[in-house]
Specification:
The complex is a heterodimer of chains A (539) and B (509).
Chain A: H1 4-19, H2 23-26, H3 29-35, H4 38-46, E1 51-55, E2 62-66, H5 68-91, H6 99-117, H7 121-132, H8 135-139, H9 145-176, H10 181-187, H11 194-208, H12 218-224, H13 227-237, H14 239-248, H15 256-277, H16 283-308, H17 313-340, H18 347-360, H19 367-379, H20 383-408, H21 422-444, H22 449-452, H23 454-476, H24 493-514, H25 517-537
Helix pairs in contact in A: 1-4, 1-6, 3-5, 4-5, 5-6, 5-13, 5-17, 5-21, 6-7, 7-9, 9-10, 9-11, 9-12, 11-14, 12-13, 12-16, 13-17, 14-17, 15-16, 15-20, 16-17, 16-20, 17-18, 17-19, 17-21, 18-20, 19-21, 20-23
Chain B: H1 15-34, H2 38-64, E1 68-71, E2 82-85, H3 87-107, H4 121-142, H5 146-164, H6 170-201, H7 206-212, H8 217-234, H9 243-249, H10 252-262, H11 264-277, H12 285-307, H13 311-326, H14 329-333, H15 340-375, H16 386-389, H17 391-405, H18 411-425, H19 429-453, H20 469-484, H21 489-497
Antiparallel strand pairs in B: 1-2
Helix pairs in contact in B: 1-2, 1-4, 2-3, 2-4, 3-4, 3-10, 3-15, 3-20, 3-21, 4-5, 4-10, 5-6, 5-10, 6-8, 6-9, 7-11, 8-11, 9-10, 9-13, 10-15, 12-13, 12-19, 13-15, 13-19, 15-17, 15-18, 15-20, 15-21, 17-19, 17-20, 18-19
Classes of the chains: A mainly alpha (539), B mainly alpha (509).
C-alpha cells in the first residue's frame, strides 16, 4: 500500500501540470505548489527502504525503488519544494501565478522527485530531462535582458548535459544489456568502453553539479532567477546530478584512476568557487559560487569513494547533499526575506541566516558540522582530508562575506511581499538545523554523541576560526580584489562567438555555391560514380 | 546473412492494397469530373475512408504476422505486377493517412472556395493534389516492381511541384521550377538505372531481383544511378538546393505535406533498393558514403538553420538536417554477422525517425503558418509575445521541437537512442558523435524559436488575428503524436518485423 506513494510522488505533480492547462485550476496554483510535493515527502517518511515498484502497464516497464540515499534526498527536497512553493505564492500577495510559471514549476518538481526514485535508465533519463529543461521557463520568469541571457546559457548547458548522458547511457546499456540501473552498473567494470562511459557520465552529471569548468551556467542562472526558483534549483534540482553520480558510478568497485581524477577536479572546484565567490557583490551570486564549492566537496567525496571501492560513500554523500538542500534553500529564501525587512529589524533575518551560512563552513553543532563528520571517513586523513578541512575554512570565509553582503544589500530587489514571507523561511531554517541531527545515525550508523565529543567539536571549529581570520584579511584587501564577471570563464565566450559567426558565414557561402546548377548537377554525377565505385571496390 | 526471399503468394486481404492506392486516385478523378467546390468535399470524404484502409492494412499485418500481397490481374511476377505491404509500408501508409487527414482539416480555412464563386484556382489545385500525393505515396510504399515505383515517384513529383507555387508569386514559381528540374534530373537517373536492371536480370520485381542480383559492373552502375536519382529527389545534402526555397515558400499546409511526407517517398525507395532489391550492399563502402552524406546533412542543415532570420526557412533547413539521420540506417544495418538485435535497433530507429520527424515537421510548418497569419510576418526577431497570444500553437511548436532535438520521451529521442546503440554495437563511434553534435545544434535552432516566443513583447502586439481553436488543436495533436512515438517503439518493432526477413525471426510474437 505505502509503495503506491512511490508512484504518486512523481505522478501528482505531472497530473497537476497537465490539469493546469485548464485555466480555472491555475487560480488555485499557489495551493497546488504546496500540495504537489506532499506525496514525495510522505513516501520518504513511510515507504520501506529497498522497496521496488514496477509498472508493467505501459509498453516500457517503469521501475521505482527507494534506498537510504534516495529517501534522504527525496524527503528534504520535498520539504524545500513545499517551503519554496509557499514562499512563491505568498510573495505574489494573492495574485495568481502565471501559467508558464506553474506548469514549469510542477514539471521540474516531477523530475526532481523522479530522479531520486527511478531505478531504470529510461525513467531516470526522463526524470532528469524534466528536472533540467522546464526549469528554463522558471529562470526567465522575470523577463529581463539578464534573465533571458541566463536562460539561454542555462538551456545550452542543460542540453549539452542531456546529450552527453544520452551517449553515456547508450554505452552503459550496451555493456549490460539491461535497462535496470543496478544490472547495467554491475556490468560496467567489465565493459570495453568503461573509461569512455565513466567520462561521459561524470561530464553529464558534472554539468548539473557545476563541476569545474562546467560550472559557468550556475552563477548567472541563480542571479537572474526569482528567489524561490533559485532556492529550488540550487537546493533540490542540483541534487539530480548528485543522485546521478551516486546511482551511476560503480562505487563498490575499485577504480583508482577515475576516482582520483574526480576527487582532484572536485577539490579544485571547492577552492575555485570560494576564490571567485569572494570577489562577488550580489548575495545570490555569492550563494551560487558557494554551491560550486560545496558540490566540489561532494565530487571529491565520490571520487575518493570510487578510488577506494567504498560503497558507503553513497550514503555519506547523500547526507552531505541533504544538508545542503535545506541550508542552501533557506539561504536563498533569506535573501528574499531580508529585502522585506527594514534596516532596524534586519538582525532577525541576519542572525539565523548567519548560523545556517556558517554551517556550510562546518560551525560546530550545525548540520554542516555533522555532514563534514559523515564524509570524513571516505575522504581519509591524508592530504585529501586536510584539503577538505581547508575548504571548510574557505567556505567560512565565503559565508561571512555572504552575510556581510546580505546585511549591506537589503531592499535591493524582490522587495514585494510582506512579513508573512518569513514563515516558510523560518520553517525551512528550523528544518535545516534539526533534520541533519535526525538523519545522522541513519547516514553514518554512528551515534549523535560522536558529534558532541570535544575532539570532533575542535576538528570542526578550527577551520571556522581560520575562515574568520581570512574574512578579516579580506576586509583589509577589499579594494585590491580583482573583479570577475558572473560565471567567470563564461567571459571567454566572447572569443567563441566570432568563430561561430565565421562558421555560419562560411556555411552560407558554401550553400550559395551548392545552390548553383552546374555544381549541384556535377555533384550528383560524382555521387553516382562514387557509389558505383564503392560497390565495385569491395567485389 | 539473409534468407533468399521467395516471391510471396497473394494473401487474403490483398485487395486492401488496391484500395489504398485507388481510393485517393478515384477521388482525384471525381474531383476533376465534379470540379469546383466539390473538390474539398471529396477530399474530406476520402480522408476517413483512406484512414480506415490504412488501419485495416496495419491490423491485418499485426494479426497475421505476414505481409499482404496482391497480384494484379492474378498474374504472378515476372509476368504480372505485385503489390506488397510489409511492416515498414504499413507504418508509412498509416503515417501518410494520418498526416494527410490532419493537414486536410487544417487547410480548410486556407483553401476554402470563396462563397459565390464556382471554382477558385488555389483551392481546387490544393485539394486535388492532396489526394494525388496520397495516391502517389501509396504506390511508392506498396509497389513491388521498379517500374511501378518509378511511376509512383513521378506522380509524387508532379503532385508536389505545383503545391510549391500555389500562391503564384514569382519567387515561388522560381522555387517550383527549380524543384521540378532537379527532380526530373533525378527521375532520368532512376529510369536509366531501371533499364539497366531490366537488361541484366529480365525482371523488375524486387523480390525476384533479390534472389538474382549480384554486384557486377552493370548492377553497380544501375544501383548507383538509381540511388543518386533518389537522393536528388529526397534532397539529401549536398543535393538539397531546391528544398529550402520550395518548402519555405509554399503555403503552410503544403509545406507541411512536402516536408513531412513527400521527401520520405524517395528515401523509402532507397531502403527498398538497398535492403530489398540488392541485399548485401550495406556491407560495402558505398553504405559508408550514404552515411557520410547523411552526416553532412545533419551538420550543414543545422548550421544553416541556425543562421536563418525567418521561421519557415529555418524549419526547411531543419528538414535538410533531419533527413540526414535516416541515411545512418545504411552503414549501421550492414556488416556480415551483425547480431539481429542490432539490425532490429537500426530498422526501428530509422523508422521511428522517419515517422516522428513527419509528425513533428507537419506540426512545425502548420504552427508556423498560424503564427505567420497571426503576426503578418514570420521574422524570428519579431516572435516576442507569440506565446501569450497563441499559447496552444506555441506549446505545439515547442513539443514538436522536443522531438526534433531528440529529448525524451519523444520519438526523436527514441530514434537517436536506437541509432546510438547500434553505432556502439557496430563499433562505428563516429555516428554516435554525429548524433551528439546534431542534438546540440538542433537544440540551438529550436531555442531560437521558443525563447522569443515565450518572452513578453517589447511593445504590445498589434491586433492579431487569432486562429480558430480547431486549427490549433490539429497542430497540437500532430506534435503530441511525434512526442508519444517515443513510448511505443516496442509495438513498432513487432510491426516492422512483418515481412522483413532480416529481423523477422527474432521478434517474439
Amino acid at each position: 500500500m505505502s509503495e503506491s506513494l512511490l508512484v504518486a510522488a512523481p505522478a501528482l505533480p505531472l497530473v497537476l501540470a497537465v490539469a493546469c492547462l485548464w485555466r480555472p485550476l491555475r487560480e488555485w496554483a499557489g495551493g497546488l505548489l504546496i500540495l504537489a510535493p506532499v506525496p514525495a515527502l510522505a513516501a520518504a517518511l513511510v515507504v520501506r527502504r529497498s522497496s521496488v515498484v514496477t509498472l508493467q502497464h505501459g509498453l516500457v516497464p517503469i521501475t521505482f525503488a527507494l534506498d537510504v540515499p534516495g529517501a534522504m534526498l527525496l524527503g528534504v527536497s520535498a520539504l524545500l519544494w513545499i517551503a519554496a512553493g509557499a514562499y512563491a505564492c505568498l510573495r505574489r500577495c494573492g495574485q495568481p501565478l502565471g501559467g508558464q510559471a506553474v506548469v514549469c514549476w510542477l514539471l521540474t518538481l516531477c523530475g526532481s522527485v523522479g530522479v531520486f526514485i527511478a531505478a531504470d535508465m529510461a525513467s531516470f533519463f526522463m526524470a532528469y530531462a524534466l528536472v533540467s529543461l522546464p526549469a528554463w521557463g522558471l529562470v526567465v520568469l522575470d523577463d529581463t535582458e539578464r534573465a533571458h541571457r541566463a536562460g539561454a546559457i542555462y538551456v545550452a548547458f542543460a542540453v549539452l548535459g542531456e546529450t552527453l548522458l544520452l551517449i553515456g547511457f547508450a554505452l552503459l546499456a550496451a555493456a549490460g544489456d539491461s535497462l535496470l540501473i543496478r544490472d547495467a552498473l554491475a556490468a560496467l567494470p567489465h565493459s570495453p568502453w568503461r573509461g569512455m562511459t565513466l567520462a561521459l557520465l561524470i561530464a553529464g552529471f558534472g554539468m548539473k553539479i557545476a563541476l569545474i569548468p562546467l560550472h559557468v551556467w550556475m552563477p548567472p542562472t541563480y542571479r537572474a532567477a526569482p528567489i524561490s526558483v533559485a532556492a529550488v534549483l540550487s537546493g533540490a534540482a542540483v541534487k539530480a546530478g548528485v543522485i546521478g553520480l551516486i546511482r551511476f558510478l560503480p562505487l563498490g568497485t575499485v577504480l583508482p584512476g577515475a576516482g582520483e581524477a574526480l576527487a582532484a577536479v572536485g577539490l579544485f572546484g571547492a577552492f575555485y568557487g570560494v576564490a571567485i565567490g569572494v570577489t562577488q557583490e550580489h548575495p545570490k551570486t555569492i550563494l551560487a559560487y558557494s554551491s560550486v564549492s560545496q558540490m566540489g566537496v561532494i565530487a571529491a567525496v565520490l571520487g575518493m569513494g570510487l578510488g577506494a571501492g567504498d560503497g558507503g560513500a553513497a550514503t555519506a554523500v547523500a547526507f552531505y547533499g541533504a544538508q545542503h538542500v535545506l541550508v542552501k534553500g533557506a539561504l536563498f529564501l533569506a535573501v528574499g526575506v531580508a529585502a522585506t525587512n527594514s534596516r532596524r529589524q534586519l538582525w532577525r533575518v541576519i542572525v539565523p541566516a548567519a548560523v545556517l551560512a556558517l554551517g556550510l563552513g562546518g560551525l560546530p553543532l550545525t548540520g554542516g558540522a555533522l555532514a563534514k563528520l559523515a564524509v570524513k571517513g571516505v575522504l581519509g586523513g591524508g592530504i585529501v582530508g586536510m584539503l577538505a578541512n581547508l575548504s571548510a575554512a574557505a567556505s567560512t570565509l565565503l559565508m561571512i562575506h555572504f552575510v556581510h553582503r546580505l546585511a549591506g544589500s537589503s531592499a535591493v530587489e524582490d522587495a514585494a511581499g510582506g512579513r508573512e514571507l518569513a514563515l516558510p523561511w523560518l520553517l525551512l531554517a528550523a528544518a535545516a538545523v534539526a533534520i541533519p541531527w535526525l538523519l545522522f545515525p541513519l547516514a553514518t550508523g554512528g551515534s549523535r554523541l560522536a558529534a558532541l565529543h570535544p575532539v570532533s567539536i575542535w576538528a570542526s571549529l578550527w577551520p571556522v576560526l581560520i575562515g574568520a581570520g581570512l574574512a578579516l584579511l579580506r576586509r583589509q584587501f577589499e579594494r585590491r580584489l580583482p573583479r570577475f564577471p558572473e560565471g567567470d570563464l563564461l567571459a571567454l565566450g566572447k572569443y567563441a562567438m566570432p568563430a561561430a559567426m565565421r562558421i555560419g558565414e562560411a556555411s552560407e557561402r558554401l550553400e550559395a555555391g551548392l545552390s548553383r546548377w552546374p555544381v549541384a548537377s556535377l555533384l550528383l554525377l560524382a555521387a553516382a560514380l562514387l557509389l558505383g565505385g564503392g560497390i565495385l571496390i569491395a567485389r | 546473412m539473409m534468407a533468399p526471399a521467395l516471391p510471396d503468394m497473394p494473401t487474403a486481404g490483398g485487395f486492401l492494397l488496391v484500395l489504398a492506392i485507388m481510393l485517393p486516385i478515384a477521388g482525384v478523378l471525381l474531383q476533376f469530373m465534379l470540379g469546383g467546390r466539390q473538390a474539398e468535399r471529396i477530399a474530406l470524404l476520402v480522408m476517413p475512408a483512406g484512414l480506415a484502409v490504412a488501419v485495416a492494412v496495419t491490423a491485418a499485418l499485426m494479426l497475421s504476422g505476414r505481409p499482404l500481397v496482391y497480384h494484379l490481374g492474378n498474374l504472378a511476377p515476372p509476368l504480372g505486377l505485385a503489390l506488397r505491404a510489409d511492416g515498414f509500408s504499413a507504418l508509412m501508409l498509416m503515417t501518410t493517412a494520418l498526416i494527410v487527414s490532419a493537414i486536410g482539416l487544417f487547410a480548410r480555412a486556407d483553401f476554402a472556395t470563396p462563397t459565390g464563386t464556382v471554382e477558385a484556382r488555389a483551392p481546387f489545385v490544393f485539394w486535388t493534389l492532396l489526394l494525388a500525393l496520397w495516391g502517389a505515396l501509396a504506390v511508392v510504399f506498396l509497389g513491388q516492381d521498379l517500374f511501378t515505383l518509378y511511376v509512383g515517384l513521378e506522380l509524387l513529383t508532379f503532385g508536389a511541384v505545383p503545391l510549391v507555387s500555389l500562391d503564384g508569386r514569382a519567387e515561388t514559381l522560381t522555387a517550383a521550377l527549380r524543384y521540378l528540374l532537379f527532380a526530373l534530373f533525378g527521375s532520368a537517373l532512376f529510369l536509366a538505372g531501371t533499364v539497366l536492371f531490366y537488361g541484366e536480370y529480365g525482371t523488375l520485381d524486387i523480390a525476384l531481383l533479390a534472389t538474382r542480383t549480384h554486384p557486377d559492373t552493370t548492377s553497380a552502375i544501375a544501383v548507383a544511378m538509381m540511388t543518386a536519382g533518389l537522393l536528388a529527389k529526397t534532397a539529401l545534402f549536398p543535393f538539397h538546393l531546391w528544398l529550402p526555397p520550395a518548402h519555405a515558400g509554399a503555403p503552410a499546409p503544403a509545406s507541411a505535406l512536402l516536408s513531412s511526407l513527400v521527401v520520405k517517398g524517395p528515401f523509402f525507395l532507397v531502403v527498398r533498393l538497398w535492403f530489398g532489391a540488392m541485399p548485401g550492399l550495406t556491407d560495402l563502402p558505398a553504405a559508408q558514403l550514404l552515411g557520410a552524406l547523411g552526416a553532412g546533412a545533419v551538420l550543414f542543415g543545422s548550421v544553416l538553420a541556425l543562421c536563418q532570420p525567418r521561421l519557415k526557412p529555418l524549419i526547411a533547413y531543419s528538414t535538410v538536417a533531419q533527413l540526414g539521420y535516416l541515411f545512418l540506417m545504411f552503414p549501421l544495418a550492414g556488416g556480415v554477422g551483425l547480431p539481429a538485435s542490432v539490425r532490429m535497433a537500426v530498422w526501428t530507429g530509422g523508422a521511428v525517425q522517419a515517422v516522428s520527424h513527419a509528425f513533428a515537421k507537419a506540426a512545425m510548418f502548420a504552427g508556423a503558418g498560424l503564427i505567420g497569419q497571426a503576426l503578418g510576418h514570420d521574422r524570428i526577431s519579431g516572435l516576442r509575445g507569440v506565446g501569450r497570444a497563441l499559447p496552444v500553437t506555441t506549446f505545439a511548436v515547442a513539443f514538436a521541437g522536443l522531438s526534433l532535438m531528440g529529448l525524451p520521451p519523444s520519438g526523436g529521442f527514441m530514434a537517436k537512442w536506437l541509432l546510438v546503440r547500434a553505432s556502439i554495437a557496430t563499433a562505428q563511434w563516429w555516428w554516435a558523435a554525429l548524433v551528439f553534435a546534431g542534438g546540440l545544434l538542433a537544440g540551438g535552432y529550436i531555442f531560437r524559436i521558443i525563447a522569443p516566443a515565450l518572452s513578453a513583447p517589447e511593445k504590445p502586439l498589434p491586433a492579431i488575428r487569432t486562429p480558430a481553436r480547431r486549427r490549433e488543436v490539429v497542430v497540437l495533436a500532430l506534435a503530441l503524436i511525434s512526442v508519444l512515438l517515443g513510448v511505443v517503439p516496442f509495438g513498432l518493432t513487432t510491426l516492422l518485423a512483418v515481412g522483413n526477413p532480416t529481423i523477422a525471426h527474432i521478434v517474439p510474437r
